[in-house]
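TA notes, week 10

Several of you asked for a full example with nothing omitted. So below is the full record: structure tokens for the whole chain, then the designed sequence directly under it. When grading your own attempts, check the secondary structure regions first.
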């Protein structure tokens, strides 16, 4: 498998996420990447445009949520060779309040020339809000 396939690039994004290297995660993206979180709470953006915007969004993530483990990953090919869909889940802890952070995601990733051009991630905003209760953003 080429390391520029959508599945390989997505797997590298998980490696960067787990190692808390948000710069490496952002560097997997094209300059003009579009990142979407359709179920994002009102106090967080639901769309980010550009590599630097996603880095700025993610840069403090490791200080808020400590992901201990990515405990399941299933990547599905689609009829578009540049796109994969992934189901994955994590276990961790919210650092400021000590709450457990267990979250399941469904992610659609499109890759061009080995870089993520579109990343759309679905997760449970109710579970997110409960885990991050009392944590201020921004």
């Amino acid at each position: 498998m080429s390391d520029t396939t959508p599945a390989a690039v997505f797997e590298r994004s998980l490696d960067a996420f787990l190692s808390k290297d948000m710069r490496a995660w952002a560097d997997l993206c094209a300059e003009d990447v579009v990142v979407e979180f359709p179920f994002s709470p009102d106090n967080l953006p639901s769309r980010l445009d550009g590599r630097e915007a996603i880095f700025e969004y993610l840069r403090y993530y490791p200080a808020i949520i400590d992901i201990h483990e990515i405990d399941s990953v299933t990547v599905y090919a689609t009829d578009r060779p540049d796109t994969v869909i992934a189901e994955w889940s994590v276990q961790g802890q919210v650092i400021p309040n000590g709450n457990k952070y267990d979250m399941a995601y469904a992610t659609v990733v499109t890759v061009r020339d080995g870089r993520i051009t579109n990343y759309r991630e679905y997760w449970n905003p109710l579970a997110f809000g409960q885990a991050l209760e009392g944590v201020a953003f921004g």
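The chain has a mean pLDDT of 94. Use that as a sanity check on your answer.
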